[in-house]
Each structure stands twice: as C-alpha cells, then as structure tokens.
TrEMBL record:
Cited InterPro entries: AAA+_ATPase, ABC_transporter-like_ATP-bd, ABC_transporter-like_CS, ABC_transpr_MalK-like, ABC_transpr_MalK/UgpC-like, Mo/tungstate-bd_C_term_dom, NA-bd_OB-fold, OB_MalK-like
Annotated ABC transporter domain residues: 2-243
Species of the source: Paenibacillus albus
Xref: Gene3D superfamilies: 2.40.50.100, Nucleic acid-binding proteins, P-loop containing nucleotide triphosphate hydrolases
Record key words, sorted: ATP-binding, Nucleotide-binding, Transport
Full protein name: ABC transporter ATP-binding protein
Pfam families with a match to the protein in the record: ABC_tran (PF00005), OB_MalK (PF17912)
GO BP field: carbohydrate transport
C-alpha cells in the first residue's frame, strides 16, 4: 500500500562532509519501508533519528531529496498534501481556537467545497464515533487535553482518509489517559481499517499499539518487525539496548571452546557455558562479543550448581509489582552491575551471595567486530 524506496532527505544546512560519528549527515538516509493496507506501523527511535522528517514526507509537507514514495502504484513525490487523501494529527493538535468543535471537524470538508449541511452532518457522525458529540458547540479552550485530542482525531478522520499520520499524538496527555486513548486509537483504527503510521519516542506505546515497528537511528532503519520479534530477536546492539525497560544487560566477553568442544562465554567476572541448543559455528570461536541478557531472563537460586554463577546482591529497588535486583560479581571485575527482575516473594536482601541462572537459552551475542550484529 505505501512504499518508501531509498528515501534520502538532506536539509539545506552546511554540515561539512557528514556527522562526527561518520554518518552522512542526512536526516533520512536511504530508507526503505513497506506498509500494508490497514496496517498500524510505528516509527520509533531516539531524538533526531528522522521520524518526523519521514512522516512529513509521507504527508507531502516535505519533499525527499531523492528516492520514491508510492501510495499503491501511484508515485506521490510531487503530489500536494491536500491531494494525498491523508488525515494527520499533530502533537499540538493544531485546532483552530476561534472555531467550535463542529467547525474544526468540518474544516477539511469545507475546504474541499462540501456544502455546510453535509459537512456538519459528517462532523456529527464522526464525533459520535470518537464520543465527543456532546461537545460540538464548544471552543477548544473549553476542552480537556483528552477531549482536544479526540477533536483532532475526528478532524483527521472526517475526510475518510486512506492513510492516517499521527505525530506523537499522545505526548500531551497524562499517563493514565494515555493508556485509554491508546486503546481507543487502536480500536478506531481497526474498525475503520485506515492504514496508520505513528511517530513516537515512547517504546511502550509503539510496541503496544502497532502491528509492526520500524526502529530508526541516524536516518536509517535498524529493524522493521512485529513488536515481539524486535524484543526477542533484535538484529543488532542498537535495537537490543534501545528496547526494554530496565534495559538489557550487556557484558563484554569473548567466545571460547575447550579441547572437549565445550563452548563458553568468558567475561571478566564469570564464565557461562553455552547450552547445547545454542552451539555456535566454528567461525565465531574467539570473537569479541557483548553478552546480552534481559533482566527478566535471569533467575536467582540460593544454592550453587555447575550452571549457576555466583554473584553478590548490591542493591534492591522496589517497583511495586516486583523488585529490581542489582548484582555485582564477587571479585569486582565487571565494570557494570547486572540487573534482574524478580517477584515480591523473593526474600533476597542486599549483601546476600546468590547464584544467577539464565532462563533457558535466552541470551544474545552481539559481534563487536561487525557493527554489533546479533550472531
Ligand atoms: P524528535 O523525536 O526529537 O522529534 P525526530 O526523530 O523526529 O526527532 P527529525 O525531526 O526528523 O527527528 O530530525 C532528523 C534530523 O534532521 C535531526 O538531526 C534534526 O536536527 C534535523 N532537522 C530536522 N528539521 C530540520 C530543519 N528544518 N532544518 C535542518 N535540519 C533539520
């Protein structure tokens, strides 16, 4: 339905030969993306990674420096925003303060020369769907943040757009309301079947709401996949460390194999025997890696066994739903703590010696010599 082919956007700023990190300096740098009809896709990444620039190019408010944007078979690079059949909700909502809710929602229809009675009828209809039909005579200043958000959604949807573009649409709402609005947007999107692209820097929001998430960094897509896949099979160190709260533990180490063919990951603080289910091919032996383990994939036991790694509890943080335990290696050789999540029933306390186990074979190895790609 939507195809972005090798999109580059260079803003008109003199930046020398590129970024100090060796990047090209382009805001968007060779982006390929396909979005299916009716799909809900999030563009997620740190500040400045090119999310908004990409959305603006989809909206037609910015032109790509090179590359092609297709809606279906139609090349839209030079199609004006008003002719793209899109609805857009901005972070600021951008409602007209002097107009009533009814006039705000009807505005894009009137712009398209729809007669007033028909436009108002449609405004009423769509306001019922987003449950603000009792507010039609009010002005934006007389509405709560959540209500303004719904008016912005209603206005974006009034034209029955094929594509809905959302730029951080929930960032002005408080945490509780955000959850409600998030569910509503998702439900509405499913009902209407409108292809939707949301820009957000809130990973929880992106993962909760989307069919697929594109993780961007430095104007490039790092990984484009369903939420569970991004989490369980991150393609590189960037995706692995960007997603997850508390973040993935990353411990520098190397891969060794002894004369009996037993493989292990050797770090400064401990060695971990790689289970049979995860044996590595010969080319990886000797490689420098980052050993990645998510905090919820570590469990603790009070007793030693050959697979458990001795550690000392340094700190415990109570999270309400459970505890965040921070471990240090007994000989203080690791440069960082290892974090794990445990339930409230676990009676672990600071100073305890404990044994750390990695659940099943849930760990990741990132190749230091190959841009942190997942082995
Ligand atoms: P944020 O989450 O902070 O909004 P973003 O991922 O949406 O960030 P963009 O706004 O797309 O990022 O910006 C990408 C890059 O392009 C950044 O380095 C930014 O400084 C630069 N940039 C954005 N707009 C302009 C502009 N009008 N002129 C020059 N450079 C710009």
């Amino acid at each position: 339905m939507i195809t972005l082919k090798n999109i580059v956007k260079a803003y008109d700023v003199k930046r020398g030969s590129g970024g100090s990190d060796g990047s090209s300096g382009n805001a968007v740098d060779g982006l390929d993306l396909e979005i299916k009809k009716g799909e809900f896709v999030a563009l997620l990444g740190p500040s400045g990674c090119g999310k908004t620039t990409t959305l603006m190019m989809l909206a037609g408010l910015l032109k790509p420096t090179s590359g092609e944007i297709y809606f279906g078979e139609r090349l839209v690079n030079h199609v004006e925003p008003k002719d793209r059949n899109i609805g857009m909700v901005f972070q600021s909502y951008a409602l007209y303060p002097h107009l009533t809710v009814r006039d705000n929602i009807a505005f894009p229809l009137r712009e398209r020369k729809m007669p007033k009675p028909a436009a108002f009828e449609r405004a009423k209809e769509i306001s019922r769907i987003v449950q603000i039909d009792h507010l039609l005579d009010r002005k934006p200043a007389q509405l709560s943040g959540g209500q303004q958000q719904r008016v912005a959604m209603a206005r974006a949807l009034a034209k029955n757009p094929e594509i809905l573009l959302l730029d951080e649409p929930m960032s002005n709402l408080d945490a509780r309301l955000k959850l409600d609005v998030r569910d509503e947007i998702r439900k509405l999107q499913r009902e209407l079947g409108v292809t939707t692209i949301i820009v957000t820097h809130d990973q929880e929001e992106a993962l909760a709401i989307s069919d697929r998430v594109a993780i961007l960094n430095g104007g490039k897509i790092q990984q484009y996949a369903p939420p569970h896949e991004l989490f369980s099979q991150p393609v590189n160190l960037f995706v692995a460390s960007f997603l997850g709260n508390p973040p993935m533990n990353l411990i520098p180490g190397s891969i060794k194999q002894d004369s009996n063919g037993i493989q292990s990951i050797v770090t400064k603080g401990f060695s971990y025997t790689i289970p049979a289910t995860r044996q590595l091919s010969a080319e990886h032996i000797g490689k420098a890696v980052q050993f990645g383990i998510r905090p919820h994939d570590i469990s603790l036991t009070g007793v030693s066994d050959p697979e458990a790694i001795p550690m000392r509890v340094d700190l415990i943080e109570h999270l309400g739903s459970g505890k965040l335990v921070k471990l240090i290696d007994p000989a203080h050789q690791l440069n960082s703590m290892i974090r794990l999540l445990t339930d409230n029933e676990n009676a672990v306390s600071s100073g305890d010696t404990v044994y750390m186990r990695i659940r099943g074979d849930k760990f990741h190895l990132f190749d230091e010599t190959n841009n942190g790609s997942n082995l």
